[in-house]
Amino acid sequence: MEQTGPMKHVTIANSNAFILSIWEWIVVAILFFGITGYVTWRWPQWERLEPGPNHRLNCWEEKKSDYWSFLRWARFARDRYPAYVLGDSVVWGQAAAHDQTISAMLNRRAGDEALFANMGVDGLHPIAMYGLLKYYGQDIRDKRVLLVYSSFWSGSAGGDLRGGWTDFFHKPLVPQFAGWLTGYNAPTEERLGVWLEHHLPTMGLTRHILSNYFDNKSVQQWMIDNPYKNPLARIDLTPPALLAKAQDTEMPWYEREEFAGKGARGGPKLVSSYESPASVSRQWEYFRKVIALLEAQDNKVFVLLLYNPYVLDHPSRRRLSGIMEAEVKPWLSEHQVPFFDVGYRVPSRCYVDQYSHMTPQGHAILTEALFEDERFRRWLDPVVTTAPAEAPASQDASGS
Amino acid sequence: MLFHTWIFGLFFAFVYAVYLPLRRTRFWVHWLLAASYVFYGWWNPLYLLLIVYSTTLDYTVGRVLSFTRYRRIWLLFSVANNLFLLGFFKYGGFVAENLNLLLAKLDIAYALPKPDYLLPVGISFYVFQSMSYTIDRYRGEVPVEKNYVRFAAFVSLFPQLVAGPIERANHLLPQLASLPVIKPHYLSEGLSLFVVGLFKKLALADFLAMYVDPIYTAPQNFDTLSLVAATFAFAWQIYFDFSGYTDMARGVAKTMGIDLMLNFNNPYLADGLGDFWRRWHISLSTWFKDYVYIPLGGNRHGTFSTYKNMFLTMVISGVWHGAAWTFVIWGALHGLGRFLTRELERTTWYELRVPRLAKQLGVFVFVCFTWVFFRAASIDQALYIVGRIFKPVVEIFACLGQGRPGLMDVFHLGDLYLDDALGDPRFPLVALLFCAGIWFYQFLFESRLRPVLESRVVRMAGMLLMLLWLMFFTTTAIRPFIYFQF
């Protein structure tokens, strides 16, 4: 198997001709990194994102791990929105259409449809939120950020990711090599792959392409499922479609099957939660890290303390209140982070579940309550100067 | 630890960073051995005991053979020990299962316990490599290795430890005896081999596995054409999987200044079964030739003895691959095939009149047929698949045998089977293009057009496309190599 011609330098027997010299490798490496870099750089121009008012990320089902889209949405919003609303599906608006979310209501109330950008991501525990901002949130800089603290996460050890709960979303965003979570048992190999995906932009783009065009499967798996289709033709450069409709109904929580008539004296079944103080809570720990990260990027943070108090039994309400008053609010005050505790301002009928998801009416009531709040207006000023409107009905007796 | 994982990338980066300065000192082999043991112990540190035992045994016997009068006894002691290791860990369950069947047939109310330990990864490879040294020492073909660390590094060299190539002492030990030379182009050659191997594994073998696995898991749910397509796909899957591993192993070793032997040489271009075995898993084929076929008598005692030896060698080769009757049958089929074709291949008519392409296709089809037994989970399943594949042919011949039907009758029969047997195999067109393209490439590589493939543009463009495909299109799930189970 003696080599001649351009391969005469080769010292190893081989059954194909793909042996490159050092100089050829250098050229191939330049071309490879040039092409991947160019594709990564140009992709946002090829796959044009032209969101209308009240845009929200398509982050459901197979698009859940498309964090590159978050990065691009944050980048897009950087030049168009002075403020972001950041949080989980409560912000995204699970039980609301895209123009009825918290950010949409805030915009409508302020009379400016380009004031608040909806940066909600479904299932985003603060641990994952910290990862999302760390790796994909560099463009959230020098903004007003309305940060929603959905306290239901810390209601139980499982939800707070302190226990062995393994079935949680956004595993790629939790710490891979520090601050181990007992419920996250990915092998080292997977953790390394995730870490690289966060640090190599092209790998993040690849994940976006797979989730957007190939049902979040590898291209090979997609070709197995679609054996006679051309995978390249599948990439039609259409950005993820806007999920305009609500993903949940507006039925109040106490009418839902899991609660209705299952409690004492035929009332709704109430939930027992908040056994542990905030000092041991993962949510609280990472929420503070999120605030620190946002402030380090010159953002002005306003915290919205949000929970559905009506779904809790009496001891749980007392415990939650204790946590809020003794730990959460003092820390926020001490660190000069303005906040607004929603408490009972939103009526029970406006919550659709125990996870604080609200109906559009709840969003409207919350918006009015916020604009009534002096700290909120001061925080928003001078981005927008507002006056309180007519006071809305803010109490509801059905669940309290 | 698998070559196509990030962990191996980190492992090798660390090993190589220390290896480079150490290669100018006598401690380079110590480092190589330490790295190899870490690599192997990654699966299960307890398995290291086995490899240390095998190493110590053959090192000791190798030294004793220099002065003892009882050379044959020492050789037998080593071979028996090595075969016991293999037999206990690899074939224990198989033997117990079959003895229990026998006892049940004889109405003896006793059952041997079935061992529940895991098969140590790559045991068949390193035991054969270690054993070959002792046999070569006995034959006086290699000098004694007095340095234990060097010998241990020879047995456990991590690039080829778990799936070969099975190196010989006279090829690898001299390389470990002197300080390694690493020239700049060794790096580029090693990297080239590694990327090609990675592409074969991730882009091709794992892709085809996605098609093959569901069909071979439940063949009763698929029609004839799907079974044919899955068998064809498996033929390429196992080639890409195993030769991909070998390419990566040779590439890694090359960057360290160590040459490992060529293990695959475009086997599906073989124009005879003998030729196939000179191209497929070359290190194992030559091992069996040198240590089984020739000691059995080779072709020295007449035609019958030659075929008997060939058949036995192939059956043993089948057993080496796995502890199941399917592997025995696979080996026996190759032995039988060799028996049936060897005389034919010697005739002038076959040699001159039959086009080479036809011979190559014939060999490929036969090899594909044998892969059914290799891949199937049991003999019953293999026979079901074979029966299902040949059912339309058998039915057509049966119809023809009932009289002299016209052409339309045969077409009508075809219609009957069209829905049942010839459904949509849903074989990915891209995979088909890959297999056909690579086959065509290999044809060109062995033709007068080879210089075109060796041109700078073709090589660089090919490498670039492979890298881009790996970057954007390959699966993220990690599948182990098929040959690890052997």
Find the structural class of chain B using helix and strand composition.
mainly alpha
* SSE order of chain A, one letter for each helix or strand: HHEHHEHEHHHHHEHEHH
Kindly identify the CATH topology of the largest domain in chain A: Rossmann fold
Radius of gyration of chain A: 25 Å
The CA-CA distance between the termini of chain B, in Å, is 16 Å
Rg of chain B, Å, rounded: 24 Å
CATH-defined architecture of the largest domain in chain A: 3-Layer(aba) Sandwich
Order of helices and strands of chain B: HHHHHHHHHHHHHHHHHHHH
- Average pLDDT score of chain B: 89
User: β content of chain B, as a range?
Assistant: under 5%
Helix content of chain B: over 70%
Q: Can you summarize the main beta sheet of chain A?
A: 5 strands, parallel
Q: What is the mean predicted local confidence, pLDDT of chain A?
A: 86
| Gross geometry of chain A | elongated
List keywords for this structure.
heterodimer, A: 400 residues, alpha/beta, 2 domains, 5-stranded parallel β-sheet, 38% helix, 7% strand, elongated, B: mainly alpha, globular
